[in-house]
Amino acid sequence: MKRRDFLKGVAATGVLGATGFPGIWTKSGNAWASNNEIPVGVLFSLTGPVAVVESTLQNACLMAIEEINAEGGIHGRMLKPVIEDPASDPATFADRIRRQVLRDNCVSVFGAYTSASRQAVLPVVEQHDNLFWYPTLYEGRECSRNVMYGGAVPNQQQQEFVPWLAENFGGRFYLIGNNYVYPREENNVCKMILDDIGGEAVHEEYVPMGHSDFGSVINRIRDMKPDVIFCTLVGDSDVAFQRQMHAAGFDPETMPVASLTRSEIEVKAMGGAAAAGHFSSAPYFMGHESAANHRFVEAYLNRFGQDEVTHFVNEAAYFQVYQFKAAVEQLAPSDITPLNIRDAAVGLRLLAPQGEIEIDPNLHTYLWPKIARWQADGQAEVVQQSARRMAPEPYWAYEDQMCTAEGLVRT
Asked: What phi, psi does 129 have (nearest 5°)?
């Protein structure tokens, strides 16, 4: 199903040590580190409607920083997190990252969950040649040289998921999502794949963010009898929809809800019984069997509480800090700048909880697509995993555009 192949020549790189750091690194008068500290911005919402998710991203980011500092930091310098609360507001995201870049001299900033907040910080980091580490799955169609993209793009979630669903349940899909850019772009990709494999979207509709009454939607689903309900609802809407589907008695064995956005966070909110038997596609699930993931989950639960969960976005918020560390370790002291960190990060391979990942020259990340069925206990059973790391292609659905190391190229 892959619509174009990227020529990849990226080899694994070693991590080099360095000694004799000066007391301060500079570029154009900005101090990137001093007083044995390396300032990094942490920009996740702790208040407002998306705080329920973004607070878990901050938890994972800070846990990685704490672990690195406990091991001696980077070249003996401690990472200093500069924390701001953008309060779930895109305009506040732009204001707070400006503080972190200009006032606090952060050499990189980790943050954000929604596409709106990412797009709000983008002009700031591009204007000031800083580096933003974004951990969230997103809709693609972006190719900034100032953003490190850690989450899945559409081909990494749908390329194997949609054909698998059609093969196992049938090719008649009902598309339901919230009314903003991410669901619309993902549904465009879904329809493209369905067209290629002989399936069809029997209905497509969008509801406002926060929408919670799905009675009319459920009636249409009952009447149309699709094989699969392809869901890009987020947050409270996803929780409400799945609870109402469960209450209406739909059987996941014959008409599953297949989600790109549902993680352990949403399943915890809706209840395992409501989610049981339905599917999600993501690079990471909490129950993934690997030594690296066992360490991550154990550390996270010990740090934040045994009733907490890890999920595919806070896993990326965690591993991106380690990608930053590995990149900085490759640079000579005088070369530590945001853009040099970016260039050093390209091609880096790292053992993350989901498996070995790699940063592509387009600054997106090779990831491990997984298809999982939700269980009544709130955990996901992986039923299929990609046989290889999948290349990130943020313009996969657009044959005349490609994100490259030089930026966006039109072919």
From this structure: 50, 45
Phi, psi values for residue 111, rounded to 5°: 175, 175
Beta bridge partners of 84: 43
pTM for the structure as a whole: 0.90
* Sequence letter at residue 138: Y
Q: How far apart are CA 350 and CA 77, in angstroms?
A: 21
The C-alpha atoms of residue 358 and residue 388 are separated, in whole angstroms, by 12
Rounded distance between C-alpha atoms, residue 385 and residue 161, angstroms: 10
Average pLDDT over residues 213-219: 97
Residue with tokens 């596609």: 281
Model confidence over 20-32: pLDDT tens digits? Answer: 333 344 444 445 6
Beta bridge partners of 40: 81
The predicted-structure confidence for 165-174, as pLDDT tens digits, reads as follows: 999 999 999 9
* Helix 51-70 vs helix 291-304: crossing angle, to nearest 10: 110
Instruction: State the DSSP code for 333.
Output: G
In this structure, the chain runs to a length of: 411
Q: What is the DSSP string of 175-194?
A: EEEESSHHHHHHHHHHHHHH
Q: Exposed (0-12), middle (13-18) or buried (19+): which is 165, by Cβ within 10 Å?
A: buried
Q: What type of residue is 347?
A: G
